[in-house]
Amino acid sequence: MLKLTVANTVTALIQGDISEHYSIRQIPLQGEVIGLGTTTEIDNGELCFLPEGDATTIYKGEPQTGAAIFQDPSSELIHFPYVCFTSNGAGLGISVDAASLPPVEAGLQAMVAAAIAQIDSPADYFGIRLQAHWQALVVTVAAKLCLWQRRRLLRDRQEDNVYESLKHFYFAEQSGDPLHHFLGPAPVWNLSGFYARHPETGLVTVPQANAHLHIHGCSSDLRFAGHIHHEHPNTRLRLIQGLILYPIAAVEVLKADLAVIDLRIEEDLLRFTIANQGRMDVSDADVVIVVNNSYRGHRALRLPWLAQGDREDVAYPIAGLPLQAGTNLIEVIANPDQTILEENLSDNRASITTVFTPSLMQPCSEDSLSA
Questions:
Q1: In angstroms, rounded to a whole number, what is the distance separating the alpha carbons of residues 282 and 328?
Q2: 263 occurs within a structural domain
Q3: Which of 26, 32, 99, 216 is the most buried (most CB within 10 A)?
Q4: What are phi and psi of 132, to 5 degrees?
Q5: CA 177: distance to chain centroid?
Q6: Residue 118 dihedral angles phi and psi, to the nearest 5°
């Protein structure tokens, strides 16, 4: 049985969630692993999973040059805000003869759809692996995460193709569109990706009608890598070979889940714990302390990093809060602006009531002295 693990979702990435992370060290790369993803806000690019011997190697398409860069699976610094990958698919793939498929003029997505129809599988998701030969190819690579930045600016407006906002590289014998970065011929590419019967789920493809195929690749000489813009009008397919389909039987979606727990007052300190109860690491997690429902006087904290399963204990001086004489309501809220797109927000806040009696020895402000 082949299992697909999705760390975050394409939908969340487009909406700007780049604060959840999954480490490359957690991805099992033994055997045939089909996958794709994108890298962090610091180290942008597109990921391609390629089989090499008895294991799978991850390469990154570099956003400035389109170059393929090896990703060290033992590195503690490489982590992804979005990545999806299968379990070991060795022996589970189904080869399809390209001669039985529609002509290349139909496009790569139509050819893959026809291949899936031939194997008569009930799966909703399929891993895809093949080698493609191109007359001309457009490849996109996310730079400065312009995809989600543009999406946030557009808000509720719809685009025909969100990939139009990404940097484009053009591979052919001769240059084409002047807006594309021409890199010369690179006719043969090894591809790995996914086909979704229902792309609106946004798990492995963009949540748009007819966007069933999401596939990344590396040129056969490992010089270049990126997102294969197979549907672009300037892309022209010559032939495909070695098409293998991997029906996926189970899907697991990983998300972060921040929680505020154990809120209490001890002596002169407000104490609480921020816990990451989810399956992904989190960066730049904001926490606010709000007194008496007045956000204007809130106190803000930021946790630079909180790994999955970890907790951060916080002690904040009561004297630093804008308490009033009498009863006060103190609320602690994690991820208040929802920059981390959590599915469960019910545990993101906790509150406590306390009675505050100002000390007679409390220092006076300069204004009160001048009065």
A1: 31
A2: yes
A3: 216
A4: -120, 140
A5: 30
A6: -70, -35
Q: Pairing mode, if any, of strands 3-7 and 250-254?
A: parallel
**CB-CB contact of 19 with 282 (8 Å):** yes
Contact (Cβ atoms closer than 8 angstroms) between residue 199 and residue 133: no
Residue 177 three-state SS = coil
pLDDT tens-digit series, residues 197-225: 999 999 999 888 899 999 999 999 999 99
Q: Say if residue 198 is in the same domain as residue 110.
A: yes
AA letter at 20: E
- The parent domain of residue 325 ranges over 256-356
Report the predicted TM-score, pTM, of the whole model to 2 decimal places.
0.87
- CA–CA gap between residue 362 and residue 58 (Å, rounded): 61
Domain boundary residue, one of 253, 282, 304:
253
Residues 77 and 9 in one domain: yes
Residues 191 and 300 in one domain: no
- Rounded Cα distance between 337 and 259, Å, is 14
Q: Which of 190, 192, 188, 189 is nearest to 245 (CA)?
A: 192
CA 318 to chain centre: 38
- Identity at 343, one-letter amino acid code: E
The domain tally of the chain equals: 2
Kindly state the tokens that stand for 17.
Answer: 């969630």
Q: Are 328 and 292 in contact (CB under 8 A)?
A: yes
- Enter the tokens of residue 146: 């312009």
Q: What is the DSSP letter of 1?
A: -
Please give the structure tokens belonging to residue 72: 């060290």
Asked whether residue 230 falls in the same domain as residue 329, the answer is no
CATH number at residue 343: 2.60.40.10
Residue 185 in domain: yes
Question: At 57, which helix (H) or strand (E)?
Answer: strand 55-61
Virtual CA dihedral for 114, 118, 121, 123, nearest 10 degrees? -10
pLDDT digits (tens, 9 = 90+) for 320-349: 999 999 999 999 999 999 989 888 999 999
Interatomic CA distance for residues 287 and 284, integer angstroms = 10
Q: In this structure, are 71 and 203 located in the same domain? A: yes
d(CA 332, CA 84): 33
Place of tokens 């813009």: 229
